[in-house]
Specification:
Oligomer: homodimer
CATH topology of the largest domain in chain A: Rossmann fold
CATH class of the largest domain in chain A: Alpha Beta
Structural class of chain A: alpha/beta
Distance between the termini of chain A: 25 Å
CATH architecture of the largest domain in chain A: 3-Layer(aba) Sandwich
Order of helices and strands of chain A: EHEHEHEHEHEEEHEHHHHHH
Shape of chain A: globular
Number of strands of chain A: 9
Helix content of chain A: 40-55%
């Protein structure tokens, strides 16, 4: 779906997600002016070199001036400071959205700072790879993936529709959800898997040297998938865990109880219990294949 | 590498691995006679239909009669019974190998039963998918993967060389290793990841219904990779955990300690500690990419 939805888009953060969205806009909406904002000069230089932006700046306030859409695509820990800096510079009627993985934190840090004449539409395109930075992005990243928007009770319906259209242009299926509910679902589908993958890869790095080198060599048996997940951006993930603490700890607690039960079944040789669980999990895999998410 | 290495090969078990090896033999060694043995009539019927064998039987003793190579490719729990049944029927000088994931258990269950005039070469082609059965196999399954052979001190060098040549024909890189060491390496690279994946998918199935359906819907964020692993064959994996109990429990214990430490860091908001770990695990991912196992 082509067409210009916005005249001037400010991308605050031009990493994997920001730069992929820039590529979508370049492809489908070549008349849209893109302003990229990042803290590091190398990142801005890359954005220019890759033709991801018409203008670049390290000043969020300058970036948002005149923009009808502002997309915050930085780690969550930067949100409050960005909110403070852009608030006075936002155009009346501008739409502010974000792509962060914890929606209650995004709302907590941004909503109180934004002027009432600005429309805030918190969002989360559920897409990514373990790579980061402007070079890692690609326009097809979002294709056939879900985008979850978590509007507030007073979010303007027109603004919500325009952000929906943006992500649909990127090829996403858009749903809306309550922010707290989003954070619990993602704690299970994404945050807990990352906690676990980071942990197991950490456990492997602490092995004695002879074992460790062979773990890398023979990683094809399952471990490799975990290392891919555990190769994701460290700062982004630090922020996700710190900002979705309650939901992550709850899911982690459930997981730990189940792991202890499984450990006990292995120790006591309870084969029937193991086989029963493994048959149940195979059924879940089939549901996911049927839901076309595999 | 084409060429006939064996005249008559008995495949005891014709699932993912057995049927993939049959396909390799059909491709590279069309004159080799293949005998497939399985307990279920449907499996034997599938082996015939897919032209994976010249002869099929549900009797292991009949299958191995006259074979110069016997490949045991069943779940580990069947080994002892198979050993008892084939021992009197094995040809003098025959080579017996297997593909099981726990080498000390394979040796424990088979070595004492086999006649001294037979050569036993325990082996583990480290390759697989989450699918099982004769339909799931394909000749390219083994390509560029590792095969670990764990010969005994008295294993015949000629027999070891011939089994090495077989897996090299299938495209594998073959190494030899002590059986106990193999079992510890695989406990970390394969068995622990499977314990964890089975657990987390089990945790998700126990969620309240509204959350569970959305976990399936939005599984793209990491959970999906775990469901793939947790979709693996239930009986095969039950047997692996029961037969590599000590090594799996040791790795699980290390993992649990590390998980508890990470959980504590999340609870107390120790961002530096999280970022430090995540940076370390990213480096491991890079080693795996450099080792060309990604």
């Amino acid at each position: 779906m082509s067409g210009k939805l916005f005249d001037r888009v400010a991308l605050i953060g031009i990493g994997l997600i920001g730069s992929s969205l820039a590529r979508v806009l370049r492809r489908d909406s070549p008349d849209t002016v893109i302003v990229a904002c990042a803290r590091r000069a190398e990142t801005l230089e890359a954005a220019r070199r890759l033709d991801l932006a018409d203008e670049v700046t390290d000043d969020p306030a300058a970036a948002v001036a005149g923009a009808d859409l502002v997309v915050i695509a930085t780690p969550l820990s930067a949100y409050a400071e960005i909110g403070r800096r852009i608030a006075p510079a936002l155009r009346e009627g501008a739409i502010v959205t974000d792509v962060g993985s914890v929606k209650s934190a995004a709302i907590r840090d941004l909503a109180p700072l934004l002027p009432t004449a600005v429309h805030f539409v918190p969002g989360h395109p559920v897409a990514g790879t373990e790579h980061s930075g402007p070079e890692a992005g690609f326009a097809e990243l979002f294709r056939d993936r879900w985008c979850i928007l978590t509007p507030l009770p007073d979010t303007d319906a027109g603004a919500l529709a325009r952000v929906t259209a943006l992500w649909e242009q990127a090829g996403m299926r858009v749903v809306t959800m309550d922010a707290e509910h989003h954070d619990r679902v993602l704690a299970m589908t994404s945050h807990l898997p990352h906690v676990i993958a980071y942990t197991i890869v950490g456990t492997a790095t602490d092995l004695e040297e002879s074992l460790k080198s062979e773990v890398i060599k023979f990683s094809a048996g399952g471990f490799r998938d975990f290392t891919r997940i555990a190769g994701s951006d460290p700062v982004m993930w630090r922020d996700i865990f710190l900002n979705n603490r309650e939901a992550v700890l709850e899911m982690l607690q459930r997981f730990s109880e189940d792991l202890t039960a499984l450990q006990r079944a292995i120790r006591w040789g309870e084969g029937d219990k193991l086989e029963e669980l493994f048959t149940r999990t195979r059924a879940i895999r089939r549901s996911i294949i049927e839901a076309k998410q595999a």
